[in-house]
Amino acid sequence: MPVLRNHHTFSLNAHCQELEVFQDASSAVSLCDRYPHHYLLGEGSNTVFIEDYSGAVLLNHIKGLEVSESHAAFHLRVGAGENWHRLVTTALEQGWHGMENLALIPGSVGASPIQNIGAYGLEVGTFIETVEMVDRASGNVVILSHDECCFGYRDSVFKQELLGKVIITHVNFVLPKNYQLNTSYGELSTLSDPTPHTIFEKVISVRSSKLPNPDKLGNAGSFFKNPVIDVARFNTLKEENPEIPFYNIGGNQVKIPAAWLIDQCEFKGKQTGDVRCHPTQPLVLTNLGNATGKDVIKMAQDIMAAVESRFGVPLEPEVRLLGKEGLVTL
Ligand SMILES: Cc1cc2nc3c(=O)[nH]c(=O)nc-3n(C[C@H](O)[C@H](O)[C@H](O)COP(=O)(O)OP(=O)(O)OC[C@H]3O[C@@H](n4cnc5c(N)ncnc54)[C@H](O)[C@@H]3O)c2cc1C
Questions:
Q1: Per-residue pLDDT reduced to its tens digit, 127-162
Q2: Cα of 227 to ligand 1 centre, how many Å?
Q3: Which of 317, 287, 272 is nearest to 14 (CA)?
Q4: Where is the catalytic site (predicted)?
Q5: CB within 8 Å of 318: residues ≥ 6 apart
Q6: For domain 65-207, which architecture applies?
Q7: Ligand 1 pocket by C-beta < 6 Å: which residues?
Q8: Relative to the CA of 169, which ligand 1 atom is closest?
Q9: What b-and-e string marks burial along 126-154, b requiring 16 or more CB atoms within 10 Å of the CB?
Q10: Please, is 322 exposed, middle or buried when counting C-beta atoms within 10 Å of its C-beta (0-12, 13-18, 19+)?
Q11: Distance 72 CA to ligand 1 centre (A)
Q12: Percent helix / strand / coil, the chain, rounded to 5
């Protein structure tokens, strides 16, 4: 059975029934027809195979970058199997600016709209003009506009109505020439004379100092989403915990850093088997080498139960857990 350890960044020792690669839309459709029980995979940085998967894993290797220029913007059509960070680097080198805040996020371009990847005050949806995909049921090519993608915090139509129904083949980005640099967030606000290059370098240096490199220590980035709660609920929580950090995100809602909640429950550095809650960033769970899916589930459930019991706030995993038959919820 094909080994999945090198196909997901958490690097658990799982297998699948078949492992196939596609490089264009028509071979993707043929593979989906040949293997009705399958899972589409980009670079596996948001997927944790917690046990052997009984279906076929289909790897997206659709490549290509086409660029056109209008009076006001650069327009990029990018193959879904391109690497995200490589795209950000190329864009910077070519003078197509704006995406620097999203440097060093692992994964494929095709997965970027799915959870609307975001960091340092920016989300990829800002730049997405359209997403090209194949509808699995009909085999038809469909193009969704920006609005139809329904981008939200780590969310989009691809995680809702279209979950498991489409294969994203290309993403079309628009990078306005008059784009205003975004340095509002965290360490970026300390840059005295920000340029796209200094933002890019700062993001890489801060991320490298805080987050474990999955090539050296298996992990899937933030294991949980930052919970969003309504203001009334938050006000009660703040009375009980005056030091609680938060971001007002409008619409009568407040986002709380999950890392702080987990830290308050003293999980930093805690271990279950070979899974450890990262000592400097408790939102990240790591594989110390021989972690099992059971270790991952136990640690995740313990964290969720502790946070819920202490703060009454439910945590929701940001990662996709894949079990024998498919997606698993905690
Ligand atoms: C160290 C680290 C840091 C991270 N930091 C961030 C961060 O700052 N911000 C952030 O938002 N995320 C972050 N992530 C999460 C991750 O980088 C993103 O979710 C990324 O977009 C996943 O890409 P992937 O190709 O690896 O997805 P995969 O894990 O391969 O797939 C994710 C999901 O998308 C589906 N999918 C993949 N490709 C396609 C396709 N072409 N068509 C249809 N469905 C598809 C898969 O079936 C799966 O359900 C981080 C991860 C790690 C390991």
A1: 999 999 999 988 899 999 999 999 999 999 999 999
A2: 19
A3: 287
A4: 154, 222, 318
A5: 46, 115, 154, 221, 222, 223, 224, 225
A6: 2-Layer Sandwich (3.30)
A7: 9, 39-47, 60, 80, 105-108, 110-112, 114-115, 117-119, 166-168, 211, 214, 219-221, 320
A8: 41
A9: bbbbbbbbbebeeeeeeebebeebbbeeb
A10: buried
A11: 30
A12: 30, 30, 40
Q: What is the pLDDT of residue 137?
A: 87
Residue of 154, 156, 276, 320 with catalytic role: 154
CA of 238 to the centre of ligand 1 (A): 33
> CATH topology for 213-328?
3.90.78
112 is catalytic: no
Could you report the per-residue pLDDT of 237-272, keeping only the tens digit for each? 999 999 999 999 888 999 999 999 999 999 999 999
C-alpha 318 – ligand 1 centre gap (Å): 10
Closest CA to 18 of 288, 26, 187, 32: 32
Residue 276 a catalytic site member: no
Q: Which CATH class is domain 5-60?
A: alpha beta
